[in-house]
Design goal:
about 425 residues, alpha/beta, Rossmann fold, six-stranded mixed sheet, three-stranded antiparallel sheet, 8 helices, elongated, binds guanosine-5'-triphosphate
Length: about 425
């Protein structure tokens, strides 16, 4: 009866199969999966004069066509136009809000042009605060409309900043991360661009305008941040035209003298747009992958065209990649590093063995030389001894002969004396 009861119990025990790896090793995967499920929210404010190339650049960055309409130059005041788009790249979803200034720089009196922009930014903070103050908050699915980054478009005059630019940036810098960009940089030569950049930076510094600095305190991105900071303000070229370069179709601008095409640099921005001095829009980290084309620029002349000495920087494609990819890339990097170290150790070991072998071979060679030397001495000694022996033997023979002759003589004299 007891056996039956045990048998019944055994049947009722469920055997569970593991549905995944158990251990804190899987924590990054969990974070990645959750972030991918939630999607990302990214709000860009584009400030710049009408027709400066705001829409073209955004279209180029996101490799889409947001179908913006041209604005007129006759707006009585500055307005802000926000549009939200749902984008998806591989399995990463992005809720992108582009806020464009309309009629900026078109009024005769530009003194108050910055005010609508400041009001807009404040209104977004206010909306977020109101949500936070609610007794029953739903920040999880709240559409965060706070501006994460402001791309400030500077006219490529090659001279200096306009009063309007300084005034606007000065009024925005405490509220938003400003990334100044020199628009339509293909209209300015390489040397002019460098001088212009230096001039702009010195003007910004002397007027106390704080622009966004890529985070240098984060070890993982310190190097790339330093490079990006060096390139500020970025010179940008936007284009929606596809041009054939080699056998590839690329987004570029085609001119009678050649084609302007940018190079890409990948930049990881971790929580980069939420400055600590600003109200935190989301408690969680937002990881964004940016592809910004800056740095070494390229001008490719099309066949038969005149090569220009102009040289350009291009912010080309803003591109979001999944955290999973980041994680995989890091893991890959780590494995690569480990393999490299293993290879290094192997090489070191082989080198040491080779060195030891060389030392042993040298010792062997020395021994062999010593042996040869001794052998030669021994040979010479033997030859000398052989010679001595030969001389001795000859002497013995001569002596024996002499002795035999003297014996005969002795016998003869003895016989003679006997007869006598
Ligand atoms: P509004 O929204 O009307 O204020 O204009 P915008 O600032 O969005 O400018 P838009 O992108 O519509 O570009 C205006 C014109 O500039 C278009 O003819 C573009 O082809 C041209 N353009 C845009 N980017 C560049 C650039 O990098 N270089 C040059 N040379 N032209 C550009």
């Amino acid at each position: 009866a007891t056996d039956d009861a045990r048998g019944g119990k055994r049947e009722s025990i469920r055997s569970l199969t593991m549905c995944g790896h158990v251990g804190f090793e899987s924590l990054p995967d969990q974070l990645v999966n959750r972030s991918i499920q939630q999607g990302f929210c990214f709000n860009i404010l584009c400030v710049g004069e009408t027709g400066i190339g705001k829409s073209t650049l955004i279209n180029t960055l996101f490799n889409t066509n947001f179908e913006e309409h041209e604005c007129s130059h006759f707006c009585p005041d500055v307005k802000l136009k926000a549009q939200t788009y749902e984008l998806q790249e591989s399995n990463v979803r992005l809720k992108l809000t582009i806020v464009n200034t309309v009629g900026f720089g078109d009024q005769v009196n530009k003194e108050e042009s910055y005010q609508p922009i400041v009001d807009y930014i404040n209104a977004q903070f206010e909306a977020y605060l109101q949500e936070e103050l609610k007794i029953k908050r739903s920040l999880f699915n709240y559409h965060d409309s706070c501006i994460h980054v402001c791309l400030y478009f500077i006219t490529p005059t090659g001279h200096s900043l306009k009063t309007l630019d300084l005034l606007t940036m000065k009024n925005l810098d405490s509220k938003v991360n400003i990334i100044p960009v020199i628009a339509k940089a293909d209209t300015i030569s390489k040397s002019e661009l460098q001088t212009f950049k230096v001039k702009l930076m010195s003007e910004l510094v002397s007027n106390g305008v704080q622009i966004y600095q890529f985070p240098a305190d984060d070890e993982t991105i310190a190097k790339i941040s330093a490079t990006m900071n060096e390139h500020l303000p970025f010179a940008v070229v936007g284009s929606m035209d596809e041009v054939k370069v080699g056998n590839k179709m690329v987004k570029a601008r085609q001119y009678p003298w050649g084609i302007v095409q940018g190079k890409r640099v990948v930049l990881l921005w971790a929580d980069g747009f939420l400055s600590p001095s600003l109200p935190t829009c989301k408690a969680e980290y937002q990881w964004l992958f940016f592809r910004i084309a800056v740095g070494n620029r390229e001008l490719e002349a099309s066949p038969g065209s005149v090569t220009s000495s102009r040289y350009f920087t291009n912010v080309k494609s803003l591109h979001f990649t999944s955290l999973q990819e980041t994680y995989e890339a890091k893991r890959h990097e780590f494995h690569g590093e480990r393999q490299r170290k293993e290879e290094e150790m192997k090489q070191m070991f082989v080198q040491r063995v080779k060195e030891k072998e060389a030392i042993l071979k040298e010792a062997e060679r020395e021994l062999q030389a010593k042996f040869e030397h001794l052998k030669r001495i021994h040979q010479e000694e033997r030859i000398k001894l052989e010679e001595k022996r030969r001389v001795l033997e000859e002497e013995i023979i001569a002596f024996s002969k002499k002795k035999a002759a003297s014996d005969i003589l002795q016998n003869q004299s003895f016989l003679a004396s006997g007869i006598g």
